[in-house]
Amino acid sequence: MIVVTGAAGFIASCLVSRLNAANFNDIVVVDNFSVAKKLPNVEGKKIKEFVDRHDFFTWLDKNYEDVEFIFHLGARTDTTETNLDVLNLLNLDYSKKMWNACCEYQIPLVYASSAATYGSGTLGYDDDESIISLLRPLNAYGESKNDFDIWALEQTAKPFFWAGLKFFNVYGPNEYHKGRMASVVMHAFNSIKESGRLTLFRSHNPDYEDGKQMRDFVYVKDVVDVMYWLMHHRKNSGIYNLGSGEARTFLDLAFNTFTAMGADINIDFKDTPEDIRDKYQYYTQANMAKLKSIGYDKPFHTLEEGIQDYVQNYLLPGTYL
Q1: Which of 72, 120, 195, 295 could make a disulfide contact with 111, Cβ separation 3.0–4.6 Å?
Q2: Looking at the domain assignment, is residue 178 inside a domain?
């Protein structure tokens, strides 16, 4: 059996689809399944068992001998969350418990970290484990993810294989439920569909023109391909960046979304909301050399390819992966 936590969420549900496509059908999905808006993400998939996240460790104590691999992708992913108790409970304490269980039962583990750990990027975007304790995230979500990365590296007891993945700006199908936290691609699609126009955040940094803020946008199909590969690789444990390796502007993203929809380009700007303005990343780009150095060589989608596939095969028809 393969365990996927956060399985009704965006990335994890796409991973379940990737596993099913490779004929892995004994999937145990873990989540809070009372959130109805996420349930379409798991409908129609080949799943062996649904386990509530609160019951998971009791379940694991009884079934660990049959568990081959754990993907721990469940977390509180709202970057505007300020309740430290919630973040510590779901992102830090739960992950520590998962790590310890994988050590006890010798189960390999891949878990979700985040590029939010890099903060303003003053130390760059290299997945060098020696600098992780020096990183200063810009929000409590990033701090919770970085705190766990630091804790994991300090442990003497480790799963025989483990990988923490610093996800950059992931976009793609199955994020319909995410609201404000959905990707800019999805927000752009909805805005263009409803009004024929798109409003982007104005730059409040003199080094960047409006719309020229840059992010490493990575297509979710590439993300799950990497995780699938790591499940088979099972060596070279550590923390890895997971982005496309190329920073692109929000204008690039906007133009490609208009093009994929066959719509005329119509863009204006508004001020970045004050509650996130001082925590806003103006540039991110994953250094992907470390992952490539251990043998991962599958090409990533370009922004053009990813947006076209996402818009034409999922957003326009309203389908799920």
Answers
A1: 72
A2: no
